[in-house]
Amino acid sequence: MSKVLHSAPRFASNEGVLDTLTGALGDMVVEAREANGEIIIEVKRDQIEHALRMLRDDHDYQQLMEMAGVDYPSRAERFEVVYMLLSLTKNHRVMVKVIAAEDTPVPTVTTLWPVAGWLEREVFDMYGVMFDGNTDLRRILTDYGFEGHPFRKDFPLTGYTELRYSEEEKRVVYEPVELAQDFRTFDFTSPWEGADYVLPGDEKAEAPEVDKPKTTESAKQTGAGKKTDDEAADETDADPPAMDDKDKEDGE
After folding, report:
1. Which of 66, 98, 138, 148 is the least crowded, having the fewest Cβ atoms under 10 Å away?
2. Is the overall model pTM greater than 0.70, yes or no?
3. For domain 17-141, which CATH number applies: 3.30.70.100, 3.30.460.80, 2.40.100.10, 3.40.50.80?
4. Three-state SS annotation for 157-225
């Protein structure tokens, strides 16, 4: 079998990448760092298209692999939109992100990668982030008429409505969520990692000590001794009931 040669290295290094990219992006960069083996660059929201175009055309990050959203409700601009880029020729990845709020649209990047149309629809559907310039910004994962955005931290885990098939109406109907019991939360903390509450059975460790059990201190207290041994050794004329029955069977 012939050996396949490829220009992309098998293992890509981050050495020098951060300085090179931030230097090229210049004033568009808000913050840049390397964390967990990843190059992460935050750029100004209104410059995202220009920044990604430069990374694609000038630094060989040809593919937009994925887009994701993150929600931080405590922030004034609560959302982050993250773009994951891949360089096929360098076998290297970089993450670029912008900050947005509900009323601050992010410029679309469908002008650079048509696939971004579906990815932006996912972020819009799950988080409610608007993308300026996306001409088909519809829900893509939730159903028609769905209310709210499920990946927001303040979205209830049970949702607002539920759907079921109605035998009476012969169609799918929407109804307010009704729980048969109160919603319960479960703590999956490992007891080996140190739970801050009493685990079932641990309450026994706090129980008071029981009275010291009484033990025999001499042979007299047990009833044992020479007299008892002699009485046990005496033969008796009475046979056990089982022996009487056996004698009767032999006589017959």
Report:
1. 138
2. no
3. 3.30.460.80
4. CCCCEEEEEECCCCEEEEEECCCCCCCCCCCCCCHHHCCCCCCCCHHHHHCCCCCCCCCCCCHHHHCCC
